[in-house]
Amino acid sequence: MPVKSQSGRVFELPTRKEESVIRTGAAEDPDTYELTDAEFSKPEKMGRPPAATTKERVTMRLSEAVVDRFRASGRQIRIDAVLKERLETHGSI
After folding, report:
1. Is the pLDDT of residue 93 over 70?
2. What is the C-alpha separation between 64 and 28, in angstroms, rounded?
3. Which DSSP state fits 77?
4. Which of 10, 35, 50, 51 lies in the 20 to 30 Å Cα band around 1?
5. 75 falls in which pLDDT band (50, 70, 90)?
6. Phi then psi dihedrals of residue 3, to 5 deg
7. DSSP class of residue 8?
8. CA distance 14 to 22
9. How far apart are CA 22 and CA 16, in angstroms?
10. Is the model's pTM score more than 0.90?
11. pLDDT of res. 39
12. Shortest CA distance to 62 belongs to which of 73, 71, 51?
């Protein structure tokens, strides 16, 4: 039976027979279990935990050479570290 999601994607749900086979297989698997209603209603938070210190998002206009250099290193996040180091060693920019 086809079901349409909110995003418009169409899914084909399993038949009753297929659902029975799936549930039987899951019940026989020692590494899995079916969630209770209470467990299902309160799922664990997933993803990256919140950072202890947060950073502020800013928009900057940088020269193409600077952007290319940091992109080549594969670590654009290093811009923050480079600016911090500059402040520590020179006291100002």
Report:
1. no
2. 58
3. T
4. 35
5. low
6. -130, 140
7. S
8. 9
9. 10
10. no
11. 83
12. 71
> How is residue 7 written in tokens?
């995003």
CA within 13 Å, CB half, 45: 3
Instruction: Find tokens 């909110």 and name the residue.
Output: 6
pLDDT digit string (tens) for 32-58?
Answer: 887 888 888 887 777 888 888 888 888
Question: Comparing 25 with 93, which gets the higher pLDDT?
Answer: 25
In sequence order, what DSSP letters do the residues of 42-72 get, joined into one string? SPPP-SPPPPSS----------HHHHHHHHH
Quickly tell me which residue has 């990256």 as its tokens. Answer: 48
Rounded-to-integer distance, Cα 34 and Cα 27, Å: 8
The two three-digit tokens of residue 35, written as one number: 């969630």
Place of tokens 């947060």: 54
Check whether 31 has a pLDDT greater than 80.
Answer: yes
CA-wise closest residue to 81 among 47, 55, 58: 55
